[in-house]
Amino acid sequence: MDDDDGESDVTVEEETVPESAEVRESPPDPEGKGGDGPLGTSQESSEEFTDAKHESLFSLETNFLEEESGGTCSLNASQDPFLQHVNKELKEKEIQAVATNSKTTHQLKWPILGQLVFSSKFQKLETFKPSKDIDLKSLHLQKPLESTWTKTNSQFVSGSPKSSSPFTPLQKELFLIMNSYRDLFYPERTALKNGEEIRHVYCLHVINHVLKANAQVLGNNSRRRSQKLGVGDDDDFRDQGLTRPKVLIVVPFREAALRVVQLFISLLEGDSKKKIIVSNKKRFKGEYGSDPEERPPNLKRPEDYEAVFVGNIDDHFRIGVAILQRSIRLYAPFYSSDILIASPLGLRTIIGGEGEKKRDFDFLSSIELLIIDQADIYLMQNWEHVLHLMNHMNLLPLDSHGVDFSRVRMWSLNNWSKYYRQTLLFGALQDAQINSVFNKYCVNLQGQVAVRNVPMTGSISHVLVQLPHVFQRMEAENLASVIDDRFNFFVNKILPQYRDAVMSHTLIYIPSYFDFVRLRNYFKKEELNFTHICEYTPKSGVSRARHFFLQGEKQFLLLTERFHFYKRYTIKGIRNLIFYELPTYPHLYSEVCNMLRATSRGEEATWTCTVLYSKYDAQRLAAVVGVERAAQMLQSHKNVHLFVTGER
């Protein structure tokens, strides 16, 4: 096949898709050997590396606060949002009321973020507007962040005319919400546009949180030493959780973990002459970095693809990071770490499943800050892992892990940690599954903030070919039956129109792998002339299928969304297009439609495009056709709607 997008492809297939998808089909092996991918860096069985040398250096029990680094900023500590949050004491009756309380919500419009929905299950709902000017001192940043942040973030603010603020307008609004310890859902994070800007600001929040939490523990160690208190002598020093890890950052690829750690180093180091100590840095660069020469040079892929699949895209990893004043310990054992950085698959293989002998999730018991970045990519990896993680967050640990119970906060002992956990969820989509995680698992006592802007124009406006788009609405009784209803509607109403040999060159785009398997089996049973490509198809099979489809030897081609997401091949020879369901990513709709241009031999007038949708696809429909048209199409008495694109 043509070289530009044929054989010499980036080897995502071998590393990324099957690894995350294997687990979808069968539970992972308990030893976690699934990571022995081609990169050879994820051997996460018994020989998984952890740093044993620096245990005492980074221990919170045996270290004390150095005088120079003490103290937060000069402002009154009682106004520090961190202290206000962790020192807030809930009452038993407030916790009981949460189960019965309905959510109170309030909408606000912010200058940059747009439409925000504040909500809370606790008694009073407080909302706020962003202040015009932001003074770094008022943010209660721990030393040295006030000075290092300006330098670390300078690449984003130096270009703007009013660059007196150390934040970009977007960062300012996001940080105000983060620093208020509310849960946040931001569904407009894209790798091309604002991904790095957002990564910078959440890393600032993470380091600020960890430095404050550790300073509190070390300060209390010093005070206890000066008062010569033994273990359990005093109740005034409750300053920690049941286990040490406080922050969990979930990212999809090793490259993202590398960038997060580099930001941590930059935020602790700034431009000071004194380099900070980073243990195991060389090893980390080797395992999480990538060789730029590995990528074949002649690949032409869309910009968004290049931005997402950059660097080391292995998706099976987990690493502990400990921070003590101005030093960082990489590969810290989980129970000696402050911050855990992991992929959903890396967490799934250690959390394990019911009945597995070797499993551990105590390290999730005292997470105070959970960040799930690039949530939309987990829809393309394996969403089950995210749900599995959420179901194991903030449970009481099964083992004491050597904790001094006299130092544990009462709300942690009461098993109320989930009401104090702040969750920050970033993705590129308003998606029902991501929404559901935010609504179901985020119960922070400070409340939730979700950004809810509606798409005015849909991605159909980016279709450049002249093409009639026929949207067919199918009726579905309820959400549970929609999968069967779609299949029956397709088999009985849509497919008969395409069985005629005149309708050759028909591509059927299928977002769900399970729907794909069902259709493939049906096509085999009916002995239809078809070929298929999914994320598990070997390279030779892909080339053969593309060739047969282009030549017209096979009438139908079944294509899965995940194959397209990971490969982005241009499929040549399409004349008729069927979207079995609307794509997860709206821009893939226009991208697939524009593939018809790849081989136009004067038959443009006969091209067709058919899309199936139901009332449960409202969000995806709005993203393709725009919110106003979507509303009309869902309420209309007519079941068929026609759009024509590309008319001159």
TrEMBL record:
Write down a Pfam family by its short name.
Utp25_C
Predominant cellular place of this UniProt entry's protein: nucleus
Q: Which UniProt keywords apply?
A: Developmental protein, Nucleus, Phosphoprotein
Region annotation (Disordered) ranges: 1-52
BP GO terms, sorted? maturation of SSU-rRNA from tricistronic rRNA transcript (SSU-rRNA, 5.8S rRNA, LSU-rRNA)
Q: Which GO terms describe its cellular component?
A: small-subunit processome
Localization: Nucleus, Nucleolus
Q: Where is the UTP25 NTP hydrolase-like domain?
A: 181-449
Segments forming domain UTP25 C-terminal: 459-643
Matching SUPFAM superfamilies: P-loop containing nucleoside triphosphate hydrolases (SSF52540)
The entry's function note states: Component of the ribosomal small subunit processome for the biogenesis of ribosomes, functions in pre-ribosomal RNA (pre-rRNA) processing. Essential for embryonic development in part through the regulation of p53 pathway. Controls the expansion growth of digestive organs and liver. Also involved in the sympathetic neuronal development. Mediates, with CAPN3, the proteasome-independent degradation of p53/TP53.
Q: Which family does it belong to?
A: Belongs to the UTP25 family.
* The protein's name: U3 small nucleolar RNA-associated protein 25 homolog
